[in-house]
Design goal:
Structural class: alpha+beta
CATH superfamily of the largest domain: Pleckstrin-homology domain (PH domain)/Phosphotyrosine-binding domain (PTB)
Mean pLDDT: 79
Distance between the termini: 51 Å
CATH class of the largest domain: Mainly Beta
CATH topology of the largest domain: PH-domain like
Number of domains: 2
Largest sheet: 4 strands, antiparallel
Low-confidence stretches: 119-129
Shape: elongated
CATH architecture of the largest domain: Roll
Length: 195
């Protein structure tokens, strides 16, 4: 029988809380509640009518860290909702949210708690599809090659251009792309980083 509520330990403090979270696979609904304390990530599984079915506690000190970043990635549920994938020493848990903003806030707060690192949130326009900059640059290069083959000069006729690369965002793990040395903004979490 599950406890009716999660009780904080004397040395535990609440950091954030979110209702209407998905956990548990394809048939899951937005019925669960997720809590972040200074010690634990707590999932309160609820039934359709709000009754508590189970409480799962995941210690935050068990979240993997690589390159001073908590191993949390943003992805999507099968239903297309944003979700975070949290990688623990002994497994992985996925938590789905109704908005990308909520998922991003959880990634930022968990990362800050686990690593102690500061995270900046930028609120500027985003690219609609990740990687489109690389595709546009590649198509532009193809057009320039055709122009050169027919004797036309290209507008960007430099002898050496920076290498185009794609890598994972150091904040959320989404794919980002651009030219070597360029500072790009992740379209999922708005983190700026140099390629």
């Amino acid at each position: 029988m599950a406890k009716a509520e999660y009780k904080l330990s004397p040395n535990e403090a609440m950091i954030m809380k979110q209702e209407r979270v998905i956990h548990g696979g394809v048939m899951a609904n937005f019925t669960d509640e997720l809590l972040l304390t200074n010690l634990n990530l707590v999932l309160i599984e609820k039934g359709t009518f709000g009754n508590v079915k189970n409480i799962q506690v995941f210690p935050v000190n068990q979240i993997k860290v690589f390159n001073n970043q908590a191993q949390i990635m943003m992805s999507k549920t099968r239903g297309g909702y944003p979700q975070i994938e949290v990688y623990f020493v002994n497994g992985q848990e996925n938590f789905g949210f109704e908005s990308k903003k909520d998922a991003t806030n959880w990634i930022i707060n968990i990362n800050q708690l686990v690593t102690g690192g500061e995270v900046q949130i930028n609120t500027s326009a985003k690219t609609a599809i990740p990687g489109t900059e690389m595709i546009v640059d590649a198509l532009g290069g193809t057009v320039d090659a055709f122009k050169g083959a027919f004797g036309f000069k290209s507008k960007n006729s430099s002898t050496e251009s920076p290498e185009k690369i794609a890598k994972k965002c150091s904040s959320c793990g989404a794919m980002i792309s651009g030219k070597t040395g360029q500072i790009v903004r992740c379209s999922y979490c708005d983190a700026d980083q140099q390629l």
